[in-house]
């Protein structure tokens, strides 16, 4: 019985040794091939990234100063001009042009109010939108749309955008009707 165990054990150790020999011979070959593949691929990637870098970089963010930021709780009028542009008014004097990162075709449909969501740091402090990363605008039951930039505009520009807007806020300021007795 000891002879059978010795033969099985010897065969098992021979297989293990053969495997180890094959692996140790193959390691340098695989390492050389891997290094060659990485070196040749890196040159191609660097050449592509240098030629394509200007076209793929997003436009720089234009962040408003603290005093000019749009207070979310003070918005009293908004208009959806097109799929990538929204305008808003806070009070009688501050008017904002809001450019979105992507097309948002469902904003303002069916008189759903727009919700402006500041990023987490502004939400915790002042609830303002300044054009920073992770600021969003959304409509009820719709996915949020990222804000690319926020800028102050004049009253004339605001009126021009408002005249061409697709959707308007329910609380938009309308001229008052004169009553005749």
List keywords for this structure.
alpha+beta; 39% helix; seven-stranded antiparallel beta sheet; 181 residues; two-stranded antiparallel sheet
How is this structure best summarized?
The protein contains 3 helices and 9 strands, in the order αβββββαβββαβ.
Can you characterise this structure?
The protein is of the alpha+beta class and 181 residues long. It has helices at residues 2-56, 120-125, 155-163, and strands at residues 70-71, 75-82, 85-90, 94-100, 114-117, 128-129, 136-139, 145-153, 167-168. Strands 5-7-8-4-3-2-9 form a seven-stranded antiparallel sheet, with helices on one face. It has a two-stranded antiparallel sheet with strand order 1-6. A hairpin with a 5-residue loop joins β7 and β8. The longest helix is centred in the first third of the chain and has 55 residues, at 2-56. It is elongated, with a radius of gyration of 32 Å.
Q: Measured on Cα atoms, how large is the radius of gyration? A: 32 Å
H/E topology pattern: HEEEEEHEEEHE
Q: Report the average pLDDT across residues.
A: 76
Helical amount: 25-40%
Q: Number of helix segments?
A: 3
- Please describe the biggest sheet, giving its number of strands, its sense, and whether it closes into a barrel: 7 strands, antiparallel
Taking the alpha carbons of the first and last residues, their distance comes to: 122 Å
Read across the widest sheet, the strand sequence of neighbours is 5-7-8-4-3-2-9
Strand content: 15-25%
The number of distinct β-strands equals 9
Question: So what's the overall shape?
Answer: elongated
């Amino acid at each position: 019985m000891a002879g059978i165990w010795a033969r099985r054990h010897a065969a098992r150790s021979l297989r293990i040794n053969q495997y180890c020999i094959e692996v140790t011979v193959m390691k340098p070959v695989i390492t050389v091939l891997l290094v060659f593949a990485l070196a040749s691929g890196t040159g191609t990637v660097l050449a592509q990234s240098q030629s394509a870098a200007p076209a793929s970089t997003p436009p720089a963010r234009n962040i408003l100063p603290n005093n000019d930021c749009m207070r979310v709780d003070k918005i009293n009028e908004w208009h959806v001009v097109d799929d990538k542009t929204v305008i808003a008014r806070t009070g009688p004097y501050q008017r904002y042009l809001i450019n979105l990162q992507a097309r948002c075709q469902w904003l303002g449909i069916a008189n759903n109010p727009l919700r402006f969501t500041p990023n987490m740091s502004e939400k915790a402090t002042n609830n303002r939108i300044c054009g920073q990363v992770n600021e969003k605008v959304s409509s009820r039951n719709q996915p949020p749309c990222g804000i690319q930039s926020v800028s102050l505009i004049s009253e004339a520009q605001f009126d021009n955008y408002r005249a061409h807007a697709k959707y308007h806020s329910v609380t938009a300021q309308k001229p008052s009707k004169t009553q005749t007795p």
